Target: Pyridoxal phosphate-dependent transferase
Amino acid sequence: MSLNRSQPPSRVGTPRFKDIVLDVMKHYKHETESEAHQIFRQAPGHGVKHALPQTINPDEETVPGIEHPGSTGVIYCSDRAMANGFSYAASHEWSNLGQGAPEVGEIPNAPPRPTSIPLPTDSLEYAPTTGVKALREAVANLYNHTYRQGKASQYTYENVCIVPGGRAGLSRVAAVIGDVYTSYQVPDYTAYDQILSSFKRLVPVPTALDPKTKYKLDIAQTKRDIQTQGLAVILASNPRNPTGQVIRGNDLKELVAIGREGTTVILDEFYSWYIYPENEKDYGQSVSAAEYVEDVNNDSLIIIDGLTKNWRLPGWRICWVVGPTNLITALSQSGSFLDGGANHPMQLAAIPLLDPAHVALEKEALQRHFKAKRDRVLQRLHQMRLDVSIPPQATFYIWLDLEKLPAPLNNGLTFFEELLKEQTIVIPGIFFDINPAHRRNLFNSPCHHFVRISFGPPLEDLEKGMDAFERVLQKARAQGMRAFGHSYKKSIDGELHSPTATRAT
Model:
């Protein structure tokens, strides 16, 4: 991924690249030497957590006893973008390749987008904390139709809890998990960091996934970890955010089987339709662990999904948790004090959208449209010599390795800050390093050299974002590395970050 075919990365730009200041930048080894990393650490909730729980960081205590939990990657990056002039009211001027949301408008050959919802008088009342029965039945029927035809054990409405968004589903589940060791993988969905930090009874146990094996979850090693470490819960996204990989076939079957051996498996399946087949006959297929469940009430498998990604309706906040009936009872109780339940009218409006015939049209249209967008972004990156070593098989994310770029562009936080100057947003890879204590030197993170690019937005936004990538690389060719790694705005009024002043305070 060098910037010039005739020169190695260390000689990009003019002879001034040998300037001593640039030499220091080239050899960054710690986050305290980097302006982008200092800005990140100064954001509330992103400082190093104290080892002793009774120790309070006065810089992060808002009022006595209250601490900042830290923002997810999307929120942090949106705040930084706003400091550089981004606003949702004028978002057309920017390319937001950071937001984890699909485009919500019409796409070719998909059913028409919903434009109105009914408001019967009964819908003005509270809905049950487990959700409207008719919607719960529709969810159960869809899983049975798609993944469980011919199986003796079938889901019913009693296996489904409707929740107001995926994070609410995760929070409800986390609230009913006891004092147990909970396994998670790195990299994975950024919100898991906050979940594992906020619910103190969960004892987080990390597993680093290896890019050499395409971030594959080693099921055999997972089983050994259960025996040697006493893991009681496994939490994972599938398909995988941010790497775009997917656990399927026999690997998924074996993972589900773990749920029959005394360990609970929680799978976040929000990208289950975003599968990109190579063969025409495979369009319209999706993936779910529900296919491999033997007994819906005895297998310790929990699935979280909803309208947010697959139906491209993130604003509806209608999602669900599927699992054994005794789990649903517990989730009803945790929902009563966490969120109070999902929007009643939107639940009713969602019911026809889960009809299998409607779903079949949505699913195939989505796969064809998003695969074309994926291929276009990969093509643009290839033209810039930013080849993706592990292209996404699923989701709408590209996990881009920057390590071969010259410093300081070769780390995600600095590359992110430079793209903000070009009115483009991506997510630095360190947000997917689920690290609840935040004590690791960021330069040592396995995610440090990555950014996540979303190809969820419309194609014109993707092209605009790729143009910004090109401008950054052209600037590097023209000016060398002198232009990068500094002069980042801290607020919309134009205040620039001063590393020297920061260290002095």
Remarks:
- The chain is about 35% helix and 10% strand.
